[in-house]
Amino acid sequence: MVYIDSWDEFVERSVQLFRADPQSSRYVMKYRHCDGKLVLKVTDNHQCLKFKTDQAQDAKKMEKLNNIFFTLMARGPDVDTTEVSGKEQAETQTSKKGRGRRQ
């Protein structure tokens, strides 16, 4: 098991690992409340990549990584992930003005 210190390197290597063999790849998140640590793990039974953090600001990064993996799993491993964004862009696209009661 390899703990990767850099977030960008972890994302890049985990996406490469998933694209190499999407059928046997797994993505696991583990949060230990008593320690306040979040561990992300991507494995394909031959290689295991891990990232550990205790920073609350990394939750947004984790959300973006989730969206990347959801996109890869739903659309296939050959899709372009540069256009995948976080929750805030999806919310701005779906919000409509003029709904609800006037005040």
How does this model look, in words?
- The chain is 39% helix and 21% strand.
- The chain is an alpha+beta fold.
- The longest helix has 18 residues.
- The protein contains 3 helices and 4 strands, in the order βαβββαα.
- 12% of the residues are buried.
- Helix 1 packs parallel to helix 2.
- It is globular.
- The chain has a 4-stranded mixed sheet, with helices on one face.
- Strand 2 and strand 3 form a beta hairpin.
- About 5% of the residues have low confidence.
Key words describing this protein structure:
103 residues; 4 strands; alpha+beta
Overall, the morphology is globular
Distance between the termini: 58 Å
What is the oligomeric state here? single chain
Largest sheet: 4 strands, mixed
Helix content: 25-40%
- The mean pLDDT is 83
Alpha plus pi helix count: 3
Number of strands: 4
Q: Look at the helices and sheets and give the structural class.
A: alpha+beta
Q: What fraction strand? A: 15-25%
- The parts where pLDDT drops under 50 for at least 5 residues are 88-92
Could you tell me the radius of gyration in angstroms?
Answer: 17 Å
Strand arrangement in the largest pleated sheet: 1-4-3-2
Q: What order do the SSEs take from the amino end to the carboxyl end, as H and E?
A: EHEEEHH
